[in-house]
Automatic annotation (TrEMBL):
It comes from the Bacteria. This is NAD-dependent epimerase/dehydratase domain-containing protein. Pfam families: Epimerase. Belongs to the NAD(P)-dependent epimerase/dehydratase family.
Length: 303
């Protein structure tokens, strides 16, 4: 089947592309390489370097006729979204709408949207958080993801357009970029490698760390699902950033120092997702606990 993966040169999108190709799908990767890398792209994928906002997108749809679209391309930097909400909305809202309009025009059968479970609910919800919890995103990034979920509801209502939303927790694993405001695991492992202190802003905030291959398995599980649905993808386990740093030092057997700095204003204090819904409906559950996932990620970072 012809499948378009936006953001296929990025961390999660490149693993997804590998898995789809291993399952013999024809994969078309669309990526502007703003935070992804050409070296991540599977050699068997057809690659187009283009911004999702670009009007030329229609030529790719015309030529490649994808039946399924996985949408991962995004401006992923929460702090940048706060500094420049217009830039974030251009990429994450207008870019996504350009993609969706082409999906309708060129009769895409199903759209799988990679949303966020980390930034969509905000603080003050019960943890592990279920999909139907109140959503009060505190950043333009979270607001943009929620907007696209609402647009998907509109497209479904208007055109009977089929979609699945996956709200991911904090994903970590090989190929995660440690530059900018990347995942904390990648930043810590890069500091470990370079013998720098692990900098912790606050430390008692909790996160739900889910390993990238578990996320890819969830993406594959929903590929042939007929119904339109929204699922959290997390582990249901809360880990403080302090605990994460200590765990990394213990597993690696390294002696890097930990440097404590004040909390960053506005940063979410608690995040942890319930995966009960997708477990019940599609029998998905994480296979990697944090120790095993960190060991696999460390092996990659050593290289
Ligand atoms: N990593 C996480 O913890 C996490 C958690 C929740 C949700 N997500 C979502 O998962 C998706 C993938 O994130 P990731 O961690 O792999 O990040 P990433 O930065 O590695 O991947 C994003 C990819 O999209 C591309 N891209 C960005 N803007 C684009 C545009 N306008 N046009 C075309 N390509 C563009 C980038 O070059 C990059 O290759 C994103 O939608 C992100 O919001 C990630």
């Amino acid at each position: 089947m012809a499948i378009l993966v936006t953001g296929g040169a990025g961390f999660i999108g490149s693993h997804l592309t590998d898995s789809l190709i291993a399952k013999k799908h024809r994969v078309i990767v669309l990526d502007d390489l703003s935070s992804g890398f050409k070296k991540n792209i599977n050699a068997q994928a057809k690659f187009y370097q283009l911004d999702i906002q670009n009007k030329k997108l229609k030529n790719i749809f015309k030529k490649e006729k994808p039946k399924i679209v996985y949408h991962l391309a995004a401006q992923i930097n929460v702090r940048r979204s706060i500094q420049d909400p217009i830039f974030d909305a251009q990429k994450n809202i207008l870019g996504s709408l350009n993609l969706l309009e082409n999906c309708i025009k060129y009769a895409v059968k199903k759209f799988i949207f990679i949303s966020t479970g980390g930034a969509i609910y905000g603080d003050g919800v019960k943890v592990p958080t279920q999909e139907n919890a109140l959503k009060r995103p505190t950043s333009p990034y979270g607001i943009a993801k929620l907007s696209i979920e609402k647009y998907l509801h509109y497209y479904n209502n208007q055109y009977n357009f089929r979609y699945t939303v996956l709200r991911l927790a904090n994903v970590y694993g090989p190929r995660q970029n440690w530059e900018g405001e990347a995942g904390v695991v990648a930043i810590f492992l890069n500091n470990l490698k370079n013998k720098k202190p692990l900098k912790i802003f606050g430390g008692k905030q909790t996160r739900d760390f889910v390993y990238v291959s578990d996320v890819v398995n969830a993406c594959i599980k929903v590929l042939n699902q007929k119904k339109t649905a929204i699922y959290n993808i997390g582990t249901g386990e809360e880990t403080t950033v302090n605990q994460l740093a200590k765990k990394i030092l213990k597993i690696s057997n390294k002696k890097n120092t930990i440097k404590h700095l004040p909390y960053i204003k506005g940063e979410q204090l608690k995040n942890c997702l319930s995966f009960a819904k997708i477990k019940q409906e599609l029998q998905w559950q994480p296979q990697y606990d944090l120790n095993r996932g960190l060991e696999a990620t460390m092996d990659y970072f050593k290289k």
